[in-house]
Design brief:
The protein is an alpha/beta fold. The chain is built from twelve helices and 15 strands. The structure holds adenosine-5'-triphosphate (ATP) and magnesium ion.
Length: 337
């Protein structure tokens, strides 16, 4: 890495590893995030997202490797890093027995802001997250979405250069989630802030982030813009219900020039082709030749879930607390273009 590249990147991570006993939470990770990016870390439960955020925000030390935030080393210059970052933790961390105002004021004091600055910043951040009307109420009377908004507001009080949001919309209803997306976008625009967020919501990463690192088992398995990640699958996704497993049919499909990827689970065949619509009639021809009945066909554009499945053979589970479910999928990777 040359000197210029290091200065322009808000975050630079080199060969970062974190072990908890036998568990490798982060495994030799390299990553650079530029100033004013809205960067997403997308991955299933236990992928290592929180661990990475915790190391970057100096809460947890790495086992090996290095990480710089805003030009400072997280280990040797943790104080300098802390002054420049804001963090919204995955687990709620507001004081329920204080009002919204008091929570913000307390945070401002921790960062050494004088009374006048605290007052004006509170106005600013409360407006941004639409909580002016509830600012004098105890936090324990807030809804989940209001708490999340107040936590974001608190993370902004000291005007950080980089803001870490660990699962900013976990468990919130779709309307509130969209509202929080709006705040996050406006933060970047109003303050030129670098925002790094973690999520296991595919749509969140897709709609909000300029670049996404897909992270799985402590490793980055793909990193690009959402558009490029989806385009990497090589076209449309065609799903065929065939009622049964037919190796001959699948082998024939796998040999076809047009098909970039092919997978099958319990008679459901998913394939990626450049132009799905024109390929459907050919599918039926081939199926007929092998006496395979196609009971339904659906055609769609790939999403980030498809990208994750293609890379790992597993699904990201959006809801619940269970870990990523192993799915038996036969991947026949044919030719890549
Ligand atoms: N303090 C700890 N002690 C032991 N193991 C830990 C600790 N913190 C994290 N781990 C383990 O490290 C791995 C990565 O956890 P991490 O919290 O970073 O995942 P995550 O991607 O944030 O997951 P989630 O989506 O569930 O928040 C997991 O296997 C987890 O059990
Ligand atoms: Mg986490």
């Amino acid at each position: 890495m040359n000197e210029g590249a290091r200065i322009s990147a808000t975050i630079g991570v080199k060969a970062l590893t974190k072990r908890f006993g036998a568990i490798s939470a982060l495994d030799n990770l390299d990553l650079e995030i530029e100033r004013e990016e809205l960067f997403g870390l997308l991955g299933p439960n236990g992928a290592g997202k929180t661990t990475l955020i915790s190391i970057l925000s100096t809460i947890v030390p790495p086992t090996s490797g290095s990480a710089e935030v805003c030009g400072y080393d997280v280990r040797r210059q943790s104080h300098e890093v802390r002054k420049r970052i804001g963090i919204v933790f995955q687990d709620p961390s507001l004081d329920d027995e204080l009002t919204g105002d008091e929570n913000l004021d307390f945070h401002g004091r921790l960062y050494g802001l004088d009374a006048a600055t605290r007052r004006s910043r509170m106005e600013e951040v409360l407006n941004l997250v639409d909580l002016q009307e509830r600012r004098r109420d105890l936090v324990r009377t807030y809804s989940g979405g209001m708490r999340r908004r107040l936590e974001i507001a608190r993370g902004l009080m000291h005007r950080p250069e980089a803001l870490f949001l660990d699962e900013p919309t976990l468990g919130l209803d779709p309307q509130t989630r969209r509202k929080i997306w709006q705040y996050i976008r406006s933060l970047k625009e109003s303050f030129g802030m670098t925002v790094i967020l973690t999520t296991h919501y595919m749509d969140e990463a897709d709609q909000l982030c300029s670049r996404i690192a897909i992270i799985d088992r402590g490793r980055i398995v793909a990193l690009d813009t959402p558009e490029a990640l989806k385009a990497s699958l090589g076209g449309d996704l065609l799903e065929l219900e065939t009622g049964g497993h037919s190796p001959e049919f699948l082998n024939h499909l796998a040999d076809m020039e047009e098909i970039a990827h092919l997978a099958e689970t319990d008679g459901t065949v998913i394939l990626t082709v450049g132009n799905g619509e024109s390929f459907i009639p050919r599918c039926f021809e081939v199926a007929q030749r092998f006496s395979v009945q196609i009971s339904s066909v659906s055609l769609r554009k790939p999403n980030l879930e498809d990208v994750f499945i293609q890379l790992t053979g597993r699904e990201i589970r959006e809801e619940g607390t269970a870990g990523p479910q192993e799915r038996v999928r036969i991947f026949m990777q044919t030719r890549r273009r």
